[in-house]
Amino acid sequence: MPIMNSKTGEVRRNYTIEELVEKAKEMRAYDMIAITAAGSGHTGGTLSIMDIAAALYLKKIKHDPENPDWEDRDRVFWSTGHKAPALYVALGEAGYFPIEEAVKLRKLGSGFEGHPNRLKLPGVELSSGSLGQGLGVAIGCALNAKLEKKDYRVYCINGDGELDEGSIWEGAMSAAHYKLNNLVSIIDRNDLQIDGSTEEVMRLEPLADKWRAFGWNVLEIDGHNMREILTSFDEAEKTKGRPTVIIARTTKGKGVSFAEGVVGYHGISPKDGRSGEESLDRALEDIGDSKFTKEKVDILLRIADDYQKDMDKKIEASMPKFSRNYWWNSGNRMRVKMDATRNGFGRALEKLGSDERVVTHGADITSSIRMSDFYIKHPERKNRFFSMGIAEANMALVASGLAKEGKIAFIGSYGVFVTGRNWDQLRTTVCYNNFNVKIADAHGGISVGPDGATHQALEEISNMYYLPNMHIAVPCDSVETEKATQVIALVAGPAVIRYAREATPLVTTKDTPYRFGVANVIRYRGEEENFIEAFEIRLSTDYKLENEDLSIIACGPMVPEAMRAAYILKEEYGIETRILDVHTVKPIDKKALIKAADEVGIIVTAEEHQVGGFGNIIAGVIGQGKRYNSPLLMDMIGVADKFGESGAPWELMKVFGLTGEHIAERAKKLCDRSS
C-alpha cells in the first residue's frame, strides 16, 4: 500500500520499482551528507538498510505523512536505533518534513537525534537505541491490532548483532505463541558489528533454522534487490497463523566503496571529511545521483552549519556571566591538558593483565571503552578475553561463574547498559554472592554527546550504591581512573568504576595522593600558568580547617568543574572554597563529609547524573552525622530530572547547567543567603 490520504483513502504517491531504486540512491546521498555534517554517525548500517527503508516508507506501508498519528496506519519500529539517519531520510522522502532538515543530524535541539526520539519527530514510532527492545514493543502493538480487530501491520527492523540479546529470543518465542501473522521482523544481515564479524563475536548461524525452530515463517532475500524486498513483504502478508522474519542479506556500507564491508565504518563519518579518498565527495560519486551537484551539497552543509552557529549563540547567551572568561584554555594562563578518562582505564587494565587471575569480557564496544587494551599489546592474553556480543545480562553471569572459581572478572559496556539492563543479575548473582566481578561503567553521564539519551547513563550511581557488597569508584580524570581501576581489581567483592568517554581536563598527577575510600581535599591557591599548579590537593585525613566560606562536594568529571568554580568564586568575590573529590562513592568518606558540613556550613554537591543520585547520598551522610549546633545550607547541581539529548559533550554540559560557571553562580547565591 503506497503513501495515502488518510481522510479520503486516495493514493498520494506510488513509486515504481525503478523509481524506488533511484530514491534509495538519493536517500543514501542525504544520509552521507547528514553524517558528514554531524561529524559522527553510523555509516555502515544506515547504508545497508537503505533499500529496505525506501521500499517500506515509499511503497509498502499504509501511512499518511500529513496525519502521522492516523490510527489505521502500519507501524515500523526501528529496534536497531543507531540506524536513525536512514529512518530520518526515509521519513523526509515520504513527506513528514522537508528532507533537507535531516542534515541537522545529531545537533542539539534539532529533533534528529543520534538515536530516534518519538517525542521530537513525526513518524517515529519508538524512542530506541538500547538494542533488543524494539521487537517486544512491536509484538505488543501487533497484539493490540488483534484485540481491536484492526488490519494494520507491524514491522520491526533488527540488526544482526542485536540478535545477541536474549530479549530478542524471548520476543520471538512469544510472537510465535500468539500466532502474530500481522508481524514482520526484518533482519539487516550485513554480518558485521562493532567488534568484528558476527560469527567471530557471537556465532548466529544457522540463523534461518533458529527462527524456524521458534515457529516463524522464514524468508531469505537479497536486501539490495528491490523486487525481492517487495515480494517478501507481499509473501509475509499472505502468511497465516505465524509471524514472518525476513533475513535480508546486505552489505554494510552498501554503495560507498571505502565503507563496504569495513568493520571500522560501523559508527563513524567519512574519515577525510568533504574531499579525499574516504570522503563525502567520494561517497556521492560512488552513489551516483547526479542531482547532488557541488552547489547543492554546499547548500545542504550550510543548512547544518548555520543551524549550529545559531545554537552556539543561544548556548553562550544562556551561560552565567562574570567579569572575564574563565572557560577551559580561554586565556594564556591556567592552561590545562585534556585526556579521555577511558584511557586511564585502558592503561590500568593492560598492567593488571599480567595477573593470570584477571579475565575480561567484551560487549561489542571493546575498543571504545578501552577493554581491548588488556590484550592488544599482549596477544597471549587473548585466551583470557571472552567476547559476549551484545548480551550484558549473560556477560554478568558468565563473569560470575569465572569469579566463583577464583578469577578477577572485568565486564564493561556503555554505563547505561552494563549497570541497567542487567541490574537484577548484578543484584542477585554478583552482589548477593559477593563475587569478584569488576564493572566498567563506561561512557558515564552525558559525555557520549551526539548518541543521545538512550546511551547517556544518568542514573547508575544511585542504582549501584544501594546494592549490598558493591564498591563504587567515580574518578575525576584519566590519571585517577588508572589508579582507581588498579585498586578495585584488588578489592574483595563486586566493584564498579564509572568513567567518561570524551576528553576531560587533567587535574591530578601520578604524585597526587590517592587512597580508596578517602576523599581528597582540593584548595585553590592562586592563578598559575598551568591550571593544575593553582591547586593544592591533600587526603581528607591530612587536611586542617582554613575557615572556608563554602564546600563543593563532587565526583567524576564534575571535580574539574568544581575546581574552576572555586577559581571563579575566589577571583570574582573573594570566596574561599573547600572542594571534596569523592572519587570513592562507596565506601564513602563519611568523616570528610561531616567535617565539611560542621566546619563550613554551606554545601553544594555536583554530579554529572540525575540530581540527587550522588547529592542525596551526601545529604544522608551529613544528616545522620552532623552536629546541629550550627546552621547548614545545601544545594545540589546535576541533571534536573530529565533524559539527555544529542549534542556535543561540552554543549550538553552547558545546557544542562553542569559547568563551573553554573556551580559558581549557584554557590554565590547560597553564600548570599547565609549573610
Describe this structure as you would to a colleague.
- With 675 residues, this protein is α/β, with parallel strands linked by helices.
- It folds into 3 domains: 3-287, Thiamin diphosphate (ThDP)-binding fold, Pyr/PP domains (Rossmann fold, 3-Layer(aba) Sandwich), CATH 3.40.50; 338-505, Rossmann fold (3-Layer(aba) Sandwich); 520-674, Rossmann fold (3-Layer(aba) Sandwich).
- It has 22 helices and 24 strands.
- The chain has a 7-stranded mixed β-sheet with strand order 12-11-13-14-16-15-22, sandwiched between helices. A 6-stranded mixed β-sheet has the order 19-18-21-20-23-24, sandwiched between helices.
- Strand 6 and strand 7 form a beta hairpin.
- Helix 3 (50-60) runs parallel beside helix 4 (84-94) and helix 13 (392-404) packs parallel to helix 15 (423-431).
- The chain starts with a strand and ends with a helix.
- The mean pLDDT is 97.
Write the layout of secondary structure elements.
Layout: E1 3-4, E2 11-13, H1 17-38, H2 43-48, H3 50-60, E3 75-78, H4 84-94, H5 134-147, E4 154-159, H6 166-177, E5 183-189, E6 192-193, E7 196-197, H7 198-201, H8 207-213, E8 217-222, H9 226-238, E9 244-249, H10 280-287, H11 294-318, E10 338-340, H12 341-352, E11 358-362, E12 385-387, H13 392-404, E13 408-414, H14 415-418, H15 423-431, E14 437-442, H16 460-465, E15 471-473, H17 478-490, E16 495-498, E17 503-505, E18 520-524, E19 535-539, E20 550-554, H18 558-573, E21 577-581, E22 584-586, H19 590-599, E23 602-610, H20 615-625, E24 633-639, H21 649-655, H22 660-674
Parallel strand pairs: 3-4, 4-5, 5-9, 8-9, 11-12, 11-13, 13-14, 14-16, 15-16, 20-21, 20-23, 23-24
Antiparallel strand pairs: 1-2, 6-7, 10-17, 15-22, 18-19, 18-21
